[in-house]
Amino acid sequence: MNTRRRFLTQLAVGAAGMTMATRSWASVIVPKKKDRLGVALVGLGYYSTDLLAPALQLTTQCRLAGVVSGTPAKLAMWQQRHGLPEANLYNYDNFDTIANNTDIDVVYIVLPPSMHAEYTIRAARAGKHVWCEKPMAPSVKECEAMIKACRDHGVTLAIGYRLHHEPNTQRIMQFRREQKYGPAVRATAEAGYVDPRKDHWKQKKAMGGGVMGDMGVYPLNAIRYGVGLEPIAVTAQASTTRPEIYTEVEETMAFQLEFPGGATAAGEASFGKRMNRLRVGNTQGWYELSPFQNYSGIKGTTSDGVALDAVVPNQQAKQMDDDAAAIMHGTPLLAPGEEGLKDTIVVEAIYRAASSGQKEKVG
């Protein structure tokens, strides 16, 4: 058994212990009298401003309690718009003093991937639960450090895989668990859009850019939860149609996965073309979602005509409510740090395969 698989095994054992231990220390970290957890958003870009902040107005288990930004003007705007107290506004220099703020229970990291590990670890040391946007981090080593820091400081770590909270996706997962259509044989997943930006972190290698550092986790994670197995080998091809923009990282990545037992999958992610579909073929039928990763309107069907058309008023609100409830009640998270680590292990193998032009083992 290699080192990473041994690490995951140890984490599984530790997670089981944490679930039991949560019941004993939850009253210390999160006072029972709290009806909602206070959430501080770290990074006030588009996702925080246009999606998470409005979603927090719809939640029942948590609320917006604070913000962290390196831009004073943004802090002032958020304070005025959301009625936040001065004591709950932080910058990146004084972030660690959040440890003294009992109004904030959870820190939600919404920064470029290259910054996820640093702020997850700092938040854990401050005694705050952590929600971290996907992808978890650019490297396996960073993911492992994030998990360890949260475990060592007795806080939970959830990764922002909102689709794990989406009901149509959950039906797909249920089909897989129950093997309603038999074991998986072949899966395909594609996710992409045309990004017109020319100077963004997604185009900068040092900030965790490249399509596998953003859209790539959608088809990869979907294949994993659609098939229900961990890949053992991968081939991959990176490409760019706009080399004047994507000078450091890939614009598009295609990858092919092999699983134990002979199942295979093909995935693709792109910043240069529109794609949005997941399909899993099994020995006794198939199921698919198209679109499978939109912020709304996810729908699909199965080979025997089952309609997958449940509607969620707000995906981000449901994700945050689910994660807050898990913290308060000491129940397992739907997408803990280990889930992000598993994707990153495969992402590293995809990059190795794209570079070598050869099949690479995963792990």
Fold and architecture overview:
- With 363 residues, this protein is an alpha/beta fold.
- It is 36% helix and 22% strand.
- It is built from 9 helices and 14 strands.
- The strands form 2 sheets. The protein has an 8-stranded mixed beta sheet with strand order 13-12-11-7-10-9-8-14. A 6-stranded parallel beta sheet has the order 3-2-1-4-5-6, with helices on both faces.
- Helix 4 packs parallel to helix 5 and helix 5 runs antiparallel to helix 9.
- The longest helix has 27 residues.
- The chain is globular.
- It starts with a helix and ends with a strand.
- About 7% of the residues have low confidence.
- What fraction of the residues are assigned to beta strands by DSSP? 15-25%
Radius of gyration: 20 Å
How many distinct beta strands?
Answer: 14
Major sheet attributes: 8 strands, mixed
Question: Which residues form runs of ≥5 with pLDDT under 50?
Answer: 5-31
> Which percent range fits the helix content?
25-40%
Mean pLDDT: 92
The rounded distance between the terminal residues' Cα atoms is 10 Å
The geometry reads as globular
Order of helices and strands: HEHEHEEHEHEHEHEEEEEEHHE
What structural class do helix, strand and pairing data support?
alpha/beta
Strand order, biggest sheet?
Answer: 13-12-11-7-10-9-8-14
Number of helices: 9
